[in-house]
């Protein structure tokens, strides 16, 4: 059975303690869930599952936020929900699970996506309780090293010979591309405005810093190593946001008079060194291309999550892709990285970019905690 994507939407990405901070993450999810219904005209009762990514599953995001989001949206109580955690790639993995379930014939209609309110549930909240996620056997295997993403980003910069100037230049480009895309209205069709409890309407991404320069970034102190190269300006922003994609079997979409916009061509997921942690997008890309039968040059756009500037730059060096095709509308350095919602946000951006640019194939990959990465190749079915 062929699984197709019928709709893809996202909220604006809010800055930490910015415009979306007062919105409960279940209510933020409800915004995109209801947007999928409103844009397609489907009855939400036909949705057989909601597969939702979320990383910090405590506090406001505890107790299966997928199910709580369904109920917050006012959908029928018959619609279930399940929450997925593959760290930063949680909503990309949610989509891959949803597509697989439809392709296998288990379901006909699934919504996939994710959410993270990093203002309300700070990064690392799930690890503040007594105990450690790293067992004695784990620590023994890795010589007592407790994995740290920032240190991993520094390790990558050193291994691939990336200077601070190179990283900062990439960060400046991310802001410039995102600002240009925003000014051209390229995000408008994919963004669902959010009305906050006080009635304020948030409709634009908040993280883009216009006028960012090498000079301004050069004044920032490094965070993880005194003599390092990683700082707040060349790393992803702490953010709030949600995203949602409607997946249907091709036959059911046709029966509802809906025109698919894309399909998932090939997926792959890999594990890599959990200490360096952020290198897995490279083997994930190699694996998904090999499985797909496509060549690098067949891909019209690449989205590599900008967790830190060193990640996509190392990816570029190893994979050899055209830099002009990488993150053409900016990435997480400029737009933000609401952990559990980022995979869906990136995929939504990419699908809309492919439609506007008449591109057939796009490839998305994300580094993930524990030294993992998903890679997904999307084929556009509708272009402008």
TrEMBL record:
Pfam families: Thiolase_C (PF02803), Thiolase_N (PF00108)
Boundaries of every Thiolase C-terminal domain copy: 258-379
Keyword Cell membrane: no
Residue ranges occupied by any Thiolase N-terminal domain in the UniProt entry: 4-251
The keyword Manganese is assigned to this record: no
Chain coiled-coil ranges: none
Xref: InterPro entries: Thiolase, Thiolase-like, Thiolase_C, Thiolase_CS, Thiolase_N
PROSITE patterns referenced in this protein's UniProt entry, alphabetically: THIOLASE_2 (PS00737)
Keywords, comma-separated and alphabetical: Acyltransferase, Transferase
Alphabetical list of NCBIfam families matching this protein: AcCoA-C-Actrans (TIGR01930)
UniProt record similarity statement: Belongs to the thiolase-like superfamily. Thiolase family.
This protein's name: Thiolase family protein
Organism: Rhodococcus gannanensis
Phylogenetic lineage: Bacteria, Bacillati, Actinomycetota, Actinomycetes, Mycobacteriales
């Amino acid at each position: 059975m062929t699984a197709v994507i019928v709709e893809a939407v996202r909220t604006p990405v809010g800055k930490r303690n910015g415009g979306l901070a007062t919105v409960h993450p279940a209510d933020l999810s409800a915004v995109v869930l209801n947007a999928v219904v409103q844009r397609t005209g489907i009855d939400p009762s036909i949705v057989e599952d909601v597969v939702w990514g979320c990383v910090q599953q405590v506090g406001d995001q505890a107790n299966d936020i997928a199910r709580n989001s369904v109920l917050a949206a006012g959908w029928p109580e018959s619609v279930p929900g399940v929450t997925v955690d593959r760290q930063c790639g949680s909503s990309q993995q949610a989509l891959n699970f949803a597509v697989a379930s439809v392709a296998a014939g288990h379901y006909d209609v699934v919504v996939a996506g994710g959410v993270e309110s990093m203002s309300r549930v700070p990064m690392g909240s799930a690890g503040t309780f007594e105990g450690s996620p790293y067992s004695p056997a784990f620590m023994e295997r890795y010589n007592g090293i407790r994995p740290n993403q920032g240190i991993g980003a520094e390790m990558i910069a050193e291994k691939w010979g990336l200077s601070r100037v190179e990283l900062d230049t990439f960060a400046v480009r991310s802001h410039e591309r995102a600002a240009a895309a925003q000014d051209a209205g390229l995000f408008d069709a994919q963004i669902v405005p959010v009305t906050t409890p006080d009635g304020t309407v948030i409709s634009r991404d908040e993280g883009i810093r216009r006028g960012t320069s090498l000079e301004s970034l050069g004044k920032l102190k490094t965070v993880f190593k005194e003599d390092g190269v990683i700082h707040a300006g060349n790393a992803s922003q702490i953010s709030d946001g949600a995203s949602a994609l409607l997946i249907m079997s091709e036959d059911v979409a046709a029966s509802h008079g809906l025109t698919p916009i894309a399909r998932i061509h090939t997926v792959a997921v890999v594990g890599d060194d959990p200490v360096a942690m952020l290198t897995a997008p490279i083997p994930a890309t190699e694996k998904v291309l090999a499985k797909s039968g496509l060549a690098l040059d067949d891909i019209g756009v690449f989205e590599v999550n900008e967790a830190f500037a060193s990640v996509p730059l190392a990816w570029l060096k190893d994979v050899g892709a055209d830099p002009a095709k990488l993150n053409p509308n900016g990435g997480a350095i400029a737009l933000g990285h609401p952990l559990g919602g980022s995979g869906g946000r990136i995929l939504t951006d990419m699908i809309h970019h492919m439609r506007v640019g008449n591109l057939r194939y796009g490839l998305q990959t994300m580094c993930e905690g524990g030294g993992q990465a998903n890679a997904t190749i999307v084929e556009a079915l509708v272009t402008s």
